[in-house]
Amino acid sequence: MRIQKIIIAFILCLGCTLPLRAQTETADYDIQTARSLVNTALSDTLGYHLLRQLTAMGHRLPGSENTKKAVSWAKQTMEGLGLENIILQPCPVPRWVRGPVESAYIMDIDGAAPCSLAVAALGRSIGTPARGITAPVLEVQSFDELKQKEDQAEGKIIFFNRPMDPGTIDTFSAYGRAVDQRVHGASKAAAAGGVAALVRSVTTKYDDVPHVGTMAYTDGIPKVPTAAVGLKSADLLSRRIRENPDLRVHLDLSCKNLAPVQSYNVFGQITGTEYPDEVIVIGGHFDCWDKGTGAHDDGACCIQALEALTLLQRLGIKPKRTIRVVFFMNEEMGLSGADVYGHWSGQNGELNMAGIEADRGAHVPRGFYVTAEPHVIETMQAWIPALNEACIEWIKKGGSGGDVARIKNAKAYIGFVPDVQRYFDFHHSANDVFSAVHPREMELGSAAMAILAYLISEYGI
After folding, report:
1. Which range marks the domain in which residue 283 is found?
2. 452 and 406 inside one domain
3. pLDDT, tens digit, for every residue of 347-400?
4. Active-site pick, 139, 278, 331, 441
5. pTM score, two decimals?
6. For the chain, what percentages of helix, strand and coil (3-state, to nearest 5) are there?
């Protein structure tokens, strides 16, 4: 009887230890796979070289000739890398042209020589009349302050001079609290009787490079022109206003809005071996502003998504589920590409497992934000030991991104989060060029997304 009890106990112990051992072996294998993905990315730097090619074509403003060339390049590149089911998906995009004239200068009433300001029209702004606008300036820090000073605003250029909060660790939070003046400043100015708006650039870098971005007009309110001002120029203007409250500024912009045109999302995939109709999307927005070449925002991120697929290919990994890279068009001026893909994703009979978006630049990886049920986030958190190989430290609840958020009924919406301290040095400006991207930081991001996509493909969520 005693021998039988011992045998039963041994069998029970064996039943407990074998799955645990199998799990341990699986975890070890995943860590080794992750390490191989990182080593390959850092050694080959394929994505970094592809980014060099992409940015050499110039900016990718929606609807521009440059963007047509970039779309063609993306399709040919995906074909050359051996991706499957490559599609150019038509989507409408706005057509806004900056034009050759973009200037502003201070005109003191004492007859002093004009003093130039570094300005750049905000996206979708109207231009000034042919001879420009010359008007006194009202400086404010907020919409509330403008409301309080509304009796002083008639016929003036409204100068919104609220900076990003330098004491905030999360630069995206600081950006979010300052960017409303860029988006809505023109309409707020016009509603108060202003004739134009100038907006302090939303950036963490103290230079005189204007940082642009889109703005929006409000129905029923007159449209007035608006431009971003470099930080040094903004401080100069503020100081000169204190010295001479009656000074005037001359603003001249030749930007204009044209009829919308057709552009394309670009996507290709590695088809899953066991669950081909279960799809993991990795992507970013392919368009960018025209003051740089969109290296960090969002060219590098698109290339990281593409390279994540090629890393799996180079290691001979055949994912169980389909992994698709999507270059979304027109995030910067309206998300029309995301809307088209999102509608298609809900109609094509596929199961959307996850959407992974990269739109925070190509700095050192830190984590992933996830919008999903708690048990899905817990499942992903168990993968951190493998993701540590690419410097990923955490996975937690948070937002994903505007493009993948349009995907219908995905189990998880995921945002790739690199270090955020330097991103707004480059964002939407002439600083955002290829030389601003560090190859090792970029390649670690490619590997991080490859590891996450691989693990979702292998184990599901």
Report:
1. 29-96+259-459
2. yes
3. 999 999 999 999 999 999 999 999 999 999 999 999 999 999 999 999 999 999
4. 331
5. 0.93
6. 40, 25, 35
